[in-house]
Design a protein that fits this description.
By secondary structure, the chain is α/β, with parallel strands linked by helices. It has 4 domains: 8-84 and 167-246, 3-Layer(aba) Sandwich (Rossmann fold), CATH 3.40.50.300; 97-155, no CATH class; 263-337 and 423-506, Rossmann fold (3-Layer(aba) Sandwich), CATH 3.40.50.300; 354-422, no CATH class. It has a 6-stranded mixed β-sheet with strand order 6-7-8-3-9-10, with helices on both faces. A 6-stranded mixed β-sheet has the order 16-19-20-13-21-22, with helices on both faces. Strands 2-1-4-5 form a 4-stranded antiparallel β-sheet, with helices on one face. Helix 14 crosses helix 15 (377-391). It is globular, with a radius of gyration of 23 Å. 46% of the residues are buried.
Length: 506
């Protein structure tokens, strides 16, 4: 880490536009080294775009960037790194090379730089240097393990390790805790506090408001591509933060929908998937929302994939209305009325290079074809427009590329495509991860509406407040096993957390 004298970072009157969208308009942002600065806003507010300008990912912006009152030129990622600015993006899989080891990923840029004019690589030194960084962060993953074998949480920590391995004055963390467990988040916060003491400025993007008050000193709030407020965090309470983000007060986070819970409709018995899921039994009634609660790594995602036929080595039985199902692939699951909204939306939930309309109609494409051959673009566009309006997807038009939408709007598209299929069982795996409070409310209302229509909902989340706010009944998972079944109205977040951490196990 360099001994930086640059104590201040300033971005002045930053504006940038993309086809059909004015993403930023005259935004000012400044932060000071040695402090953590929260940068927040609803999905589509422009915060990630602003940080991509700072990172040199967008070069067609107007405005100026200064470090310690000296204007600097940042038009490429190299320009940003040369000025000590490092960014850890939310999409971890696109930032790491999956078929290289942890050590090679951490030391990647140093290795490439040192190779100039040389033919040999000192692999021992690469792994030794990477291990020092991991030891410093108290991360126990092996430097020789391939990145493709890591969990989402481990990938995130490797990315952060790679960033702090280089000269860093300001470190931007875009939703860094989204894939992390509580203990991993605490580990990250310890590192952030250490970096602040070393004189590094932290820019922290997160939708988890309690985290901001734990780790940040300052806050900047954006809305619709513009600056709303910059303030010391102690001067703004959480309710005011939400009001500034949304531009209005929000009454109640979780919807109250009158519904009737019907007969048992979907049942799983003895579901196993290697060592990830170990003999899980569960059932869901019509109109019921059951929660899969547990910390990161408890097996929630693996169970959802197993129920959807997306895991190769699954055993056990599935029943729909007492009729046994033969689910051997996602195709079989969809044909039998089962839908999955996966945790990693960009990799598994949407086609990022395709249009909004293509994504929304992909799961039910047969509805828009003639003789299973000719696609009716008119029907497709009409159906897509209806979903866009009903879910409030913020997009220039139905032809816009999904990859250009904000994270929350991508998630709405990932959910919306299943509404045209009209499934019987909906599996939601961390559906609000990386989503702002307004979009979260929209998703909660959608889930509640599906339940009101008599659908079976399985809702997996590591956020206990969500589980308590949206579900009727809860299965708590720990180490691939359901350790407790609870009725939501008769439990508490504390009890769920106790079981999630393995408490009371005999």
């Amino acid at each position: 880490m360099i001994d930086s004298k640059a104590s201040r970072l300033d971005m002045k009157r930053i504006s940038i536009a993309f086809p059909g969208v004015q993403a930023l308009t005259d935004v000012d942002f400044h932060t000071v080294a040695g402090r953590a600065h929260a940068l927040i806003g609803a999905n589509g507010a422009g915060k990630s775009t602003l940080m991509k300008v700072l990172a040199g990912a967008h070069d067609h912006y107007t405005g100026s960037i200064s470090v310690d009152d000296e204007e600097v030129r940042i038009r490429t990622p190299k320009d940003a790194k040369d000025n000590g600015i490092q960014v850890v993006y939310q999409e971890v899989d696109t930032a790491l090379i999956s078929n290289l080891s942890v050590g090679e990923n951490i030391m990647l840029e140093q290795t490439v730089h040192n190779m100039k004019g040389k033919h040999l690589i000192n692999w021992r030194e690469i792994h030794r240097s990477a291990q020092k960084i991991l030891d410093r962060m108290n991360i126990t993953v092996s430097t020789k393990k391939l990145v493709q074998e890591l969990t989402l949480a481990e990938k995130q920590m490797v990315l952060i390790a790679r960033s702090v391995s280089k000269q860093c004055r300001f470190l931007v963390l875009d939703e860094p805790t989204a894939p992390l467990s509580h203990s991993e988040t605490e580990q990250l916060f310890r590192l952030i506090r250490f970096l602040k003491e070393e004189g590094v400025g932290i820019i922290f993007i997160s939708h988890r408001l309690p985290e901001l008050y734990e780790i940040c000193e300052d806050i900047t709030i954006m809305r619709d591509g513009k600056l709303v407020i910059r303030e010391e965090l102690v001067n703004v309470d959480q309710h005011k933060v939400v009001e500034h983000m949304l531009g209005a007060k929000m009454d109640g986070q979780f919807p109250h929908v009158q519904k009737e819970i019907g007969q048992k409709w979907f049942e799983a018995k003895g579901i196993r998937d290697g060592e990830k899921v170990n003999g899980v039994d569960l059932h869901v009634c019509k109109g019921e929302i059951i929660g899969l609660a547990g910390l990161v790594g408890a097996g929630k995602t693996e169970l959802c994939r197993a129920l959807f036929g997306a895991a190769p080595d699954v055993s056990g039985q599935l029943f729909m209305n007492e009729k046994e199902l033969r689910i051997r692939s996602p195709h079989h699951a969809v044909r039998n009325g089962i839908a999955l909204v996966p945790e990693e939306r960009r990799r598994e939930g949407v086609f990022v290079e395709e249009s909004v309309s293509t994504n929304l109609t992909a799961a039910g494409l047969s509805r828009f074809t003639r003789w299973r051959t000719w696609l009716s673009k008119e029907k497709e566009q009409k159906a897509a427009a209806g979903i866009i309006q009903s879910l409030g997807v913020k997009t220039p038009n139905a032809s816009a590329k999904v990859g250009n939408l904000s994270g929350g709007n991508q998630q709405k598209v990932a959910i919306g495509k299943w509404l045209l299929v009209d499934a019987d069982v909906y599996l939601f795996d961390e559906p609000t991860k990386g989503v702002d409070v307004g979009a979260k409310r929209d998703i909660y209302e959608l889930v509640a509406e599906l339940a009101r229509r008599g659908k079976c909902i399985i809702y997996a989340s590591s956020e206990m407040s969500e589980i308590m706010g949206i579900t009727d009944r809860i299965y708590v998972m720990y180490d691939g096993v359901v350790v407790k079944e609870l009725h939501t109205s008769q439990t508490s977040e504390e009890e769920i957390m106790l079981h999630s951490t393995g408490g009371l196990l005999t």
